[in-house]
User: What shape does this take?
Amino acid sequence: DGSRTNVYGEGQVWLVKSGKIWVQLRYLATPATNGLAAAHDIAVGGPFMNQHILRVGPLRGGKIIWDFQAKWLESGVASAAVASWRKEILMAFGEFDPAGLGKISYDNKGQLLDSAQEGLPRHIVHVLLPGNLFMQIYRWENHLNVRIRMPPKPNQDGHCGNFNGDKDDDARDMIVGRIGDFVAKADLMFDTDTPRTHSKAVSLDDCPEDKRQQAEQNCRAALDAGDGSDDERFRGCVFDVCFVGERYAAQEEVEGW
Assistant: This one.
């Protein structure tokens, strides 16, 4: 609904949770983000995937995994696995047939939001799945950027919002009140469970004035934002540059396929 949710601790959260579509994201602190939590790996599954799960991690130490978990029943209730298998896919650029469910491709094609990033190598996983779920997963060395496009689904919620047209009810505390702070262990689609941690909330008020002014200058140039004071994306860029570094000035989104 256009709201922006910040996560300061480590653990697995729901990006999208509906009756059939499940998207989970793991946040981890990294040296590159000065100890702040960043999107590290993502898992896509649920009944609409016919008991398959797609997992994507960063370039360093991460993989693209396609597997079958018989415990994900059509009811959406986890039970003891009676059969499972997995395989690493797309170890190089190419395409993969996800059991006839859609299309998964991996390449260096994708329109960056900022032309200043044109010289950076791109590693983009494009995902098209049932229900008109389209994702672009941009793999960096230690973290991911993710864009999800999909029509609203019944009973949808998560950090991407509930898509009821009211952005005011997508604040973090309201999302937590509806679906919990982290993914329950019984619903986890990752192999490992990262212990949940809560870090102190950080805001732009914590950024030193001289550093903030430099960050604002960088973000105006990167995003062509003008004054930018009322632009949520601009403020997010300033936050990233203040607390992570200038290289994140325009790593906000990836567009196009």
